[in-house]
Amino acid sequence: MAATNHDSPSDLPLKRKWPRRLAILLAGLILSVYCLPYLLLLGPVRQRLIDWAMADVHGQVKMESLSTGWFSPIRVGGFELQDDHGQVVLSIPQITTSKRLIDFLRSDQLGEIELANPTLQLELTPEGSNLESVLAKYLQADTHSTAPPQLEISITGGTMLMSGTTDRVAQ
Fold first, then answer.
1. pLDDT averaged over every residue in the chain
2. pLDDT at site 56
3. Residue of 74, 70, 72 lying closest to 35 (CA atoms)
4. Per-residue b/e over 90-100, b at no fewer than 16 CB within 10 Å?
5. Which run of H or E residues covers position 28?
6. Is 33 helix (H, G, I), strand (E, B) or coil?
7. Alpha-carbon distance values, 82 to 1, 57, 144, 158, 162 (Å)
8. Is the pTM of this model over 0.90?
9. Sign of torsion, CA 105 117 53 67?
10. Region for residue 136 given its phi and psi (left: phi exceeds 0; alpha: psi -120 to 50; beta: otherwise)
11. Which among 42, 97, 36, 95 has a CA at the least distance from the CA of 69?
């Protein structure tokens, strides 16, 4: 029987192993970046991201579902904006963006955002409304801010329920 001269992987010189290790590391990095949107949308991480993004809201934002990928639009299901007392101010069963996630990295334009069948429950008070209270920090004038991003909002269907009083208290 003839002797073969096959090197085992442990016999390979270190200089021949580094390309394989580099390829495995690079493939792992590419896979991690590709999966990043999915990992960020897992339940606890998703809620923390929502809380961070909506920190200036006087109330709470909830979403039943949120789906995206680098090459697909962002879809939100069961969106709710609640005031400090837990009352629903705005509910939107379906929100869809026209842009893909990767497009948001390339441009500050938000594109078209479609709101399907939203319901706004507006409670009027002498001081304003529940919506104004929830969004108070966003409505304050900021002289140092840059121009807001451009976007187009498309609303299909929808309901607005109003209650309360518009009588202002004289000061």
1. 81
2. 85
3. 70
4. bbbbbbebebb
5. helix 14-40
6. helix
7. 81, 9, 29, 18, 16
8. no
9. negative
10. alpha
11. 36
Instruction: Give the pLDDT band (50/70/90) at residue 92.
Output: very high
Output the six-digit token pair for 28. 């792992």
The amino acid at 82:
Q
pLDDT tens for 122-166 read: 998 888 899 998 988 878 866 566 777 788 999 999 999 999 876
The residues, ordered by sequence, that sit 6+ positions from 85 with a Cβ below 8 Å of its Cβ are none
43: Cα within 13 Å, side-chain hemisphere? 0
Type of residue at 46: R
pLDDT band of residue 117 (cuts 50, 70, 90) is: very high
